[in-house]
Design a protein that fits this description.
This protein is of the alpha/beta class and 340 residues long. It has a single domain, classed as TIM Barrel (Alpha-Beta Barrel). The protein has 13 helices and eleven strands. The strands form two sheets. Strands 1-2-3-4-5-8-10-11 form an eight-stranded parallel beta barrel, surrounded by ten helices. β1, α2 and β2 form a beta-alpha-beta unit. α2 runs parallel beside α4 and α10 packs antiparallel against α12. It starts with 6 loop residues before the first helix and ends in an 8-residue tail after the last helix. It is an enzyme of class 4 (lyase). One of its GO terms (molecular function) is fructose-bisphosphate aldolase activity. Pfam families: F_bP_aldolase. Pathway: Carbohydrate degradation; glycolysis; D-glyceraldehyde 3-phosphate and glycerone phosphate from D-glucose: step 4/4. It catalyses: beta-D-fructose 1,6-bisphosphate = D-glyceraldehyde 3-phosphate + dihydroxyacetone phosphate.
């Protein structure tokens, strides 16, 4: 069976996670091999999840470095890979900072609308705008501008609130701060004005997170529940910077409303560790043109990288509580009909 990943299906997945207290792995990928590894991990874990690409991955995926072109090339590849899976998988564009909105996200959404109108099957299911580095009025102004474009392609929007984040991602580095209920409320009002409820979008807030590898993340997951209580909305929270976080903090974040956790650094490390281990075991033979083909052939070391990354994705799904849920009857009931 192949799951039909419509907008209603994606929103149903998110509601189910919130109501049953678990979260989905959201795994960043950059090419065919990491895409295969990530989807294999979700499949092995019997977990739904997100496969997502950053602007850096999009630039690398195309022959000219154009992130719009690269997004469509890599997105189509992931869409076709998904057809071989038996768990629900959403394809997502990750972390579009404000300075890339008009260079990446807006033209991508417009191109996707052209493709949709021409009859092409949907490529992306959700899109992320990161306005956390903007003042709140600029953040919500961009959200208002993006919402009709996202609606035109039947997508779900993920946004970020409040201050700056710790760590580094796509060349942007900051010291961590914490989101405020006031900023979150402004974002909530923006969606309400567009006729949307808290079940219709994803919200990332800063609770001590660090993008990339945190030195020692100062996480306060209880802030998530406090914001929900003070704003009167339950919020479908996203945990950005999940890599390297203590397991107890991850579980606490999920208990406080997180339904999606982004993982990039940990899976990158796992992939490269698999390749490194394979070449270390080759003991230098890979440098021999005559004798080393079974080691220098990229198909072999890529396979080792895939295997290691897949195992890490399974581990993440188990930590988040999503493992095994793709086969549950009550889980399937929130999804649109599947296609045989």
């Amino acid at each position: 069976m192949v799951f039909a990943m419509t907008t209603n299906a994606l929103k149903g997945m998110l509601r189910d996670a919130h109501e049953h207290g678990y979260a989905y792995p959201a795994i960043n990928v950059s090419n065919l091999d990491t895409g295969i590894a990530a989807m294999a991990g979700l499949e092995q874990a019997k977990s739904a999840g997100f496969i997502q690409i950053s602007v850096g991955a999009a630039k690398q995926a195309g022959p000219t470095g154009d992130p719009v072109e690269g997004s469509i090339i890599l997105g189509r590849t992931l869409r076709d890979l998904r057809k071989a899976q038996h768990v629900p998988i959403a394809i997502h564009t990750d972390h579009c900072h404000a300075d890339m909105v008009d260079a990446w996200l807006v033209p991508l959404l417009r191109e996707l609308k052209v493709l949709k109108d021409a009859g092409e099957e949907k490529i992306f299911d959700s899109f992320m705008f990161d306005g956390s580095h903007d003042e709140i009025h600029d953040n919500v102004a961009t959200i208002r501008r993006l919402l009709p474009l996202v609606r035109d392609v039947d997508g779900v929007l993920e946004v970020e609130a409040g201050g700056k984040w710790g760590g580094m991602e796509d060349g942007v580095a900051d010291k961590a701060v914490f989101s405020t209920p006031e900023d979150v409320k402004e974002i909530q009002r923006t969606f309400e004005d567009a006729g949307l409820t808290a079940d219709d979008y994803l919200l990332a807030v800063a609770f001590g997170n660090a993008h990339g590898t945190a030195v020692v993340p100062d996480l306060h997951p209880e802030l998530l529940s406090e914001i929900a209580e003070k704003t009167g909305e339950r919020n479908l929270y996203v945990f950005h910077g999940g890599s390297g976080s203590p397991d107890d903090d991850v579980r606490a974040a999920v208990a406080n409303g997180v339904v999606k956790m982004n993982v990039d650094t940990d899976t990158q490390y796992a992939y490269t560790a698999g390749v490194d281990g394979f070449l270390t075991d080759a003991n230098g033979v890979q440098r021999s043109h005559r004798e080393g083909k079974k080691f220098f052939d990229p198909r072999h070391w890529n396979a080792a990288g895939r295997k290691s990354m897949t195992a890490k994705v399974v581990e993440v799904a188990e930590l988040l509580g999503s493992a095994g849920r793709a086969e549950a009857v009550e889980y399937r009931s929130v999804l649109d009909p599947v296609v045989a």
